[in-house]
């Protein structure tokens, strides 16, 4: 596993090879960005959207957080990091597509299902608890039906994508662009164990291999 010195070594490789080989591209990117896709993914170190989708710099506008969650539209209170990024991507960059990508072995989902941080103070899990409580309704429903075993964890991992998509549509800028045909939303799930990407069919609610 890489530590900081390994990252600096990697940077030097990039600077002497990747950056040099694509210098013209980097020069254009220095003038601005115009990605066609926004990706909302988990912060998990094993789930890198640029690697999974094999993209180059400038092609995706990426937001990553615990359990790839989007909060509902709301005013006041707290910080709105995801909301601000979403607003920037949709209203300023005018991306025509958004992908919400969940994944297997998600620690945030496991914490939500087990309620591991439920009574923890901020700084010792409390911030995590308050973030993943966005999954409370889905968690309670799945736990009542399936318990808290591997099948329930997998079901809740898939549900994070549906919850986030539903919350996306509470932002006024989203449905108005969908209705005008200017924006499409996709749900995806990456299975770390076998490297297979699954896509959500919103009509059926099912995920199938891409």
UniProtKB/TrEMBL annotation:
Cofactor(s) needed for function: Zn(2+)
One GO term (biological process): carbon utilization
The entry's keywords: Lyase, Metal-binding, Zinc
Signal peptide (from-to): none
MF GO annotations: carbonate dehydratase activity; zinc ion binding
Record-linked SUPFAM superfamilies: beta-carbonic anhydrase, cab
Catalytic activity: hydrogencarbonate + H(+) = CO2 + H2O
Cytoplasm found in the keyword field: no
PROSITE patterns membership: PROK_CO2_ANHYDRASE_1, PROK_CO2_ANHYDRASE_2
Enzyme Commission identifier(s): 4.2.1.1
Binding site residues for Zn(2+): 42, 44, 103, 106
Co-factor: note: Binds 1 zinc ion per subunit.
Record-linked InterPro entries: Beta_CA_cladeB, Carbonic_anhydrase, Carbonic_anhydrase_CS, Carbonic_anhydrase_sf
Function: Reversible hydration of carbon dioxide.
Family: Belongs to the beta-class carbonic anhydrase family.
Protein name as annotated: Carbonic anhydrase
């Amino acid at each position: 596993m890489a530590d900081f010195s390994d990252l600096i070594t990697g940077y030097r490789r990039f600077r002497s090879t990747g950056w040099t080989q694509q210098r013209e591209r980097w020069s254009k990117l220095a003038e601005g960005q115009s990605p066609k896709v926004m990706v909302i993914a988990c912060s998990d170190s094993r789930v890198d959207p640029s690697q999974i989708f094999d993209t180059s710099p400038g092609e995706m506008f990426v937001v990553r957080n615990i359990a790839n969650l989007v909060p509902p539209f709301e005013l006041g209170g707290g910080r709105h990091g995801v909301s601000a990024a979403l607003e920037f991507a949709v209203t300023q960059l005018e991306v025509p597509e958004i992908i919400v990508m969940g994944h297997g072995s998600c620690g945030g989902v496991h914490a939500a299902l087990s309620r591991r941080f439920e009574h923890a103070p901020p700084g010792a899990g409390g911030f995590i608890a308050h973030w993943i409580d966005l999954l409370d309704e889905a968690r309670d429903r799945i736990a009542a039906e399936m318990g808290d075993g591997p099948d329930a964890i997998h079901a809740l991992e898939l549900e994070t994508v549906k919850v986030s998509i539903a919350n996306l549509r509470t932002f006024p800028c989203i449905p108005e662009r969908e209705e005008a045909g200017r924006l499409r939303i996709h749900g995806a799930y990456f299975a770390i164990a076998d490297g297979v990407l699954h896509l959500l069919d919103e009509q059926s609610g099912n995920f199938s291999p891409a």
